[in-house]
């Protein structure tokens, strides 16, 4: 199967054809996918070199002239390294952009910690008014990229990953989807965590919500789910554990509830290897998830 | 209905306008380090006025060195972007005029600034955005301080803009020798090494500033280093 990243350049190249406002800003990473588009639109496909502060600043400048910049590199160099540019050049300047990251939490485990960004969504949570899409399949990535570019001058983050579910689902760029219904707990599976969550909760009496747009957090969907499934909530996220815990708690602030946030741990593993090994090390494989979900929800969840 | 003739201001009026913010018409060199360059730009170089802020064809001036913005506000007021009546409220809770400018609040301000090293990268993007839309007339100006050049983000922009041939991009460096670690001639040399056209002039000499601002520089971005009195003596 191809990856979300394989879809990125073809989709955005088509958007360059369709919409004269669209411009792509790169910092070397990903430029090979845009060779043809750059020949066609030399002024709207821009590679600034290995300069990530300039990457965001230039994106903001493009936006201030009325364009819709799509800014791309690995998550660690897109959100973490130039974080103040994200905060000021976009947020404070009131400028919009679509930030599209690759490499996610540990897409390249052999590359080590310098190329891992499990904290990207949590960092963006310190800022106002970001839309965050976390597709779980290349088809969903295509859909969400289109939503992101079409979202006026909004600030949108699209988090592409190698981690993926086997099948794509029709997502709408806004709401959580109910993929299983039960009575003894709600499990929110974010993006590529869905397959593992469905395997982990097989035979458990839980509602499973599928979230590919996590900001704004679909509080209404979570509240609706708790009406029949109760207010024990488990979040399973492909980035830093607990990133959405505050959003879930806010959604249920007027009722007693419990929230368990599962995701990537803070502790640096200092391991290379492959993605499956990192998934397991963070307890995000189906077996570990089942143990932890079952332990949190208690005996009542077993059908 | 009262019709008031629109008042016109000259360079000599600027200390009084600044005095509305500072409470004193006498200002030290640090407060006025940008004043002459700003005046020459807004009076004789920039093709922008208060009624053109929505015009895609306007020149863009980005104040990157947002610290000590009294001279900037005074010039914006003198040129009709900002009402003179706003000046006495400088820095107060209800005033749009803070100690660092906010583009959302200040008519005429193309960017908000304060944190150093943000203006030049945004100016690069502005130049690229205008080019991509076939807007060939507007020029882009950014004003930075000599110590602001300590910030590495500027060097990302300088190193990119030269080889990219961003001819419409102009940087004014107000050099009041405030950087702790610097070498004589180092500012212009760094821009020149990246392929910029560079001039260093007396930052108090309006004719010299104007000549440097308007000299042709085909195919290359332009930097004008405007030297003024040292901040620390």
Automatic annotation (TrEMBL), chain A:
Domain Transketolase-like pyrimidine-binding, chain residue ranges per copy: 2-167
Gene3D superfamilies per UniProt: 3.40.50.920, 3.40.50.970
Record-linked Pfam families: Transket_pyr (PF02779), Transketolase_C (PF02780)
Protein name per the record: Transketolase
GO MF entries: magnesium ion binding
InterPro entries per record: PDH/Transketolase (IPR051157), THDP-binding (IPR029061), Transketo_C/PFOR_II (IPR009014), Transketolase-like_Pyr-bd (IPR005475), Transketolase_C (IPR033248)
Domain of life: Bacteria
Native organism: Streptomyces albiflavescens
SMART domains on file: Transket_pyr
Coiled coil residues, start to end: none
Automatic annotation (TrEMBL), chain B:
Domain of life: Bacteria
One Pfam family from the record: Transketolase_N
Keywords: Thiamine pyrophosphate
This protein's record includes keyword Ribonucleoprotein: no
Cofactor(s) needed for function: thiamine diphosphate
MF terms (GO), sorted A to Z: magnesium ion binding
Sequence similarity: Belongs to the transketolase family.
Protein name from the UniProt record: Transketolase
Organism: Streptomyces albiflavescens
Record lineage: Bacteria, Bacillati, Actinomycetota, Actinomycetes, Kitasatosporales
């Amino acid at each position: 199967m191809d990856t979300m990243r394989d879809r990125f350049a073809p989709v955005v190249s088509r958007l360059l054809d369709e919409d004269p406002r669209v411009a792509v800003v790169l910092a070397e990473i990903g430029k090979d996918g845009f060779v043809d588009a750059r020949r066609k639109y030399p002024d709207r496909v821009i590679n600034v070199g290995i300069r990530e502060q300039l990457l965001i600043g230039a994106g903001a400048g493009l936006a201030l002239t009325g364009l819709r910049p799509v800014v791309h590199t690995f998550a660690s160099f897109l959100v973490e390294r130039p974080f103040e540019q994200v905060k000021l050049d976009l947020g404070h300047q009131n400028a919009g952009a679509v930030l599209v990251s690759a490499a996610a939490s540990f897409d390249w485990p052999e590359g080590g910690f310098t190329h891992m960004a499990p904290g990207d969504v949590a960092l963006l949570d310190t800022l106002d008014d970001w839309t965050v899409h976390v597709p779980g399949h290349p088809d969903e990535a295509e859909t969400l990229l289109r939503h992101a570019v079409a979202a006026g001058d909004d600030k949108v983050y699209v988090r592409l990953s190698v981690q993926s579910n086997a099948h794509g689902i029709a997502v709408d760029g806004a709401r959580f989807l109910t993929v299983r219904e039960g009575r003894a707990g709600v499990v929110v599976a974010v993006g590529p965590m869905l397959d593992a969550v469905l395997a982990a909760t097989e035979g458990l009496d839980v509602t499973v919500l599928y979230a590919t747009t996590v900001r704004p957090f679909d509080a209404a969907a979570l509240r609706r789910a708790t009406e029949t499934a109760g207010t024990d909530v488990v979040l399973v996220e492909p980035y830093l554990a607990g990133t959405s815990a505050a959003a879930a708690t806010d959604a249920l602030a007027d009722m007693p509830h419990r929230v368990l946030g599962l995701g990537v741990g803070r502790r640096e593993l200092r391991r290379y290897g492959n993605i499956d090994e990192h998934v397991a090390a963070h307890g995000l494989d189906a077996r570990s998830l089942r143990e932890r979900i079952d332990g949190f929800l208690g005996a009542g969840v077993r059908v | 209905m009262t019709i008031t003739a629109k008042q016109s201001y000259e360079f000599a009026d600027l200390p009084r306008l600044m005095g509305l913010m500072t409470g004193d018409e006498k200002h030290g060199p640090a407060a006025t380090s940008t004043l002459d360059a700003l005046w020459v730009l807004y009076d004789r170089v920039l093709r922008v006025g208060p009624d053109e802020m929505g015009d895609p064809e306007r020149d863009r001036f980005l104040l990157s060195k947002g610290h000590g913005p009294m001279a900037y506000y005074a010039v914006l007021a003198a040129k009709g972007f900002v009402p003179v009546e706003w000046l006495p409220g400088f820095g107060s809770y209800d005033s749009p005029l803070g100690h660092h400018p906010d583009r959302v609040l200040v008519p005429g301000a193309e960017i908000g600034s304060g944190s150093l090293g943000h203006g030049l990268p945004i100016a690069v993007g502005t130049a690229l955005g205008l080019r991509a839309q076939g807007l060939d007339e507007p020029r882009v100006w950014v004003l930075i301080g000599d110590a602001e050049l300590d910030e590495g983000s500027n060097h990302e922009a300088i190193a990119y803009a030269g080889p990219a041939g961003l001819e419409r991009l102009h940087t004014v460096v107000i050099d009041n020798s405030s950087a702790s670690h610097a070498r004589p001639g180092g500012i212009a040399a760094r821009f020149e090494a990246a392929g910029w056209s560079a001039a260093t002039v007396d930052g108090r000499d309006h004719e010299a500033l104007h000549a440097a601002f308007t000299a042709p520089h085909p195919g290359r971005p332009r930097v004008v280093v405007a030297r003024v009195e040292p901040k620390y003596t």
